[in-house]
Amino acid sequence: MANRTVSKTAGTKRSFIDRMGGQKFIVLIIVIVMFIFFCAMSPQFRKYTTVVSILDYSYYIALMAIGVTFPLLTAGVDLSIGTGLICYSLIGGYLVVHQDWPVAAGMLVTVLMGVIFGVINGCLVALMDLPAFLATLCTCMITRGFGALVVGGFGIPWPTAAAPGGWFRSIFKIKIADWNIPIGFLWILLLVVIMSFVLNHTKMGRYTRAIGSNKEATRLSGVNVKFYHVMAYVICGLFAGLASIAYSAIFATVQPGSGAGFELDAIGGAIVGGTSMTGAVGSITGTLVGVFVICLLKTGLPFIGLTANWQQIITGFVLIAAVLFDILKRKKEGN
Amino acid sequence: MKKKVLAVLLGGCMVAGLVAGCGSKDNGTAADGGEGGEGGGSSYHFEVVVKSFQSTYWQAAIQGIDAAVEELGVTVNTTGPNAESDIADQVQQLNNAISQKPDGIALAANDQSAVIPSLQDALDAGIPVVCFDTGVPDAPEGSVIATIATDNESAGAVAAENMYEVIKDTIANATEQVRIGEVNQDATSANISGRGMGFINKMKELIEADGKTVAVVGNQYYVDQVENNGDEGSADVIIEVAVPAQTTVELSSTEASNIMTKEDTIAIFGSNQVTAEGVLTANQNLSVLAATPDEGIVGVGFDAGATLKAAVADGTLIGAVTQAPVDQGNLAIKALYDYCEGKEVKDIATDSYWYDAENMEEADIAPNLYD
Questions:
Q1: Contact A251 B250 (CB under 8 A)
Q2: Shared-domain flag, residues B179 and B311
Q3: In chain B, N or C: fewer CB atoms in 10 Å?
Q4: Burial class, B341, CB count within 10 angstroms (exposed 0-12 / middle 13-18 / buried 19+)
């Protein structure tokens, strides 16, 4: 198990697809095909504003997905990122709107909250040996209740773009002569590059994979497994905090009680992008591409006139296909 | 074996979460009413089940409930699911409320048919039920003593009438087909589907009265309810009905953008707070909402909340319809109290109001415009 990644790169008969990056290459092609398909089917979809909308709604999912890739690589999961995102945004926004804190301070609190809940998740999973699914399901409930409690059940409107303090909205979108420029995408790309580097070229990344591959063997080889295991959840929490800022910047109001289900878009994106639920295998670039499959489905299906129920059915089938692909691939590799 | 232990743990955890979740929400109302009641000798305890704690709408209703609690010296315990789509959760909460054997239950049902067996249980247990916000038309005879709700058909019609005022000249002078959009939260709850149909029927009636033809397209649930639906190809006006997969602002906004990017769209109506915010979110990228159809698309919202109020105040939306949530919560508790005191209670239709930048501050409107 431990040398699964090694054997992959050392293989002698590598197909064209594998050389191009394996599953993520296929998924990238799927994204392009889907985009062309939706463009062909719907004249409304082929508009610049639609592209901006898709990007707008992809930021928070992409950020959550980059983060959650780390727990997934340790063969864990973090289900608290969706409700957590809303909780952090509510509390940060509450300080800004009702306590007159500067927006920058509110944003900092938002990110810090994410890190704190990352530490809590990490401790529960890595130090106290709770199953990740269980531990993060509990923090998912805690964050949902906690956020609503702090704001007293009322929605929080972060400052609008035109209002004082609205500058933070232009982190993700700037307006030049009536054109909305989705610059948030550049930040996402930058973070993908940074986190890919962290995952592939630092101890943090290598040990994250090693924990997911064989935790005991990693521990026996002298790695401080507990520390790196906690850190995987802290990274996830940090990105949930960043996602929280993206969400606050794109949407006008944050409603308490919402957020459940966001994590599934992010986890689904990571899995479609080739991250294995059983750990060790996956990449940040794959996750990003996978997120766009989910986002395109969410935006595109309504545009081609498919109603609510069909959208959910199709999204479900896409996830089954992605997981099946992962299982078949591993069977073929003899794992 | 390990799996079984995990399953039991998980089950336990979920129950604990549920209990903790409900408990935390009770605090406000239960504590408020705890004192006064005992002394008066008429200390009733009521259970309230609202639709969700997600929308600030329900926080406004709870304000009304709290006011009644203070005034009458009763105790109230309020519960509700996390989202209005959590139908099964709400039925369970209703069943829990019945098993507490309270003196009465106030219910805002998320699904009209799912709660019927529970209402029968309440009837058998002799617990009176007041429905507020949403009625349950097929409730067992005698179980529901009163319904306190907005007349949603007419609330939807109010939106249609006010929108039509602004767009009628454009419709009258149009040489080609024009489109009116409507984004609805869901197709199960009577008040939202009633509101959606109220809008559609009124708009259709107004347009046809002026000698034009109308076709309703989109979500099948709504289209099927339209009488004498016109032909999509030849109609002068298309009313397009969209329902998002889940009631999130993001998905509502996607549905709204789909309609708002069509060249022939002249107006759009978001039939509750979330869908109206969806229309506004879509407009952030499209920037098409305007005061008249000549300049862009005319937008109308429903309910309130800080974002909607700001959009009405600055003219992004020409206006919106608000209900009276504070009154509804208040009247529901009062009706239960009166019933327990042996007085007669009857159904009350609470008002819905059209508000725009002009009349937002007026005395009968402002209290219902919650943040």
A1: yes
A2: yes
A3: N
A4: exposed
